[in-house]
Amino acid sequence: MSYWDHRKPVHRTRAVDDLFDLGLDHALGADPAVRHAVDTCELTGLMLAYHAHLTRHGWACLVIGMRAPRGPHYLRLSERMIALLDELGAPDPLSAAYTLATFTLGSALTQPMAPFERAAPVDAEIAPRYARLHTEHPVDTDAVFRSGLTALTRTALTRDDTDGAGHGGARQGPR
Question: How many helices and strands (H and E) does the chain possess?
Fold first, then answer.
């Protein structure tokens, strides 16, 4: 194997990763609703704008699932989330931001399958409660997202994860 053949995949992968970072950050920065939310909105408005952005750009959910975005627009979004959570009195604003961002990402990622959820029957012999509720449920993904966001925000403002539970078992140092 030549030196060039050995090094080529390393450079090529890095270039693709760089393109992912640039694309993610460009799409976020080009979204006027997200820019407005980062500059002016409270936490719920910020998360709703981010969710709408991710729903419009479903590819971004897949890319974020592979790598943590570190472009300037994503850093501003993260900083704003953390600042708002801190101002609201979250005991651990970083873990709370991770929780809300992960929920938002997962909700946006699964939103396109909602029409198929409604159409797919549930076997009542295996899951009778699920089958009954499934036939009655309106499948309003925006309402489900808002409900989850409200519950998670309430929890994030009252739960203190500094004992290490939210940090992979590593204790957080003094603040």
Answer: 9, 0
- Residue 81's CB is within 10 A of a number of other CB atoms, namely 23
- How do residues 66-102 score in pLDDT, each as one tens digit? 888 888 999 999 999 999 999 999 999 999 999 999 9
The tokens of 67 are what? 């790598």
If we measure between CA atoms, which residue out of 78, 76, 68, 94 comes closest to residue 156?
94
Residue closest to 56 by CA, chosen among 72, 76, 32, 39: 32
Indicate yes or no: pTM above 0.90: no
Continuous segment of H or E residues that includes residue 98: helix 93-110
Count other C-beta atoms under 10 Å from residue 37's C-beta: 23
**Would you state the torsion angle of the CA atoms of residues 24, 28, 30, 34, taken in this order, to the nearest 10 degrees?**
170
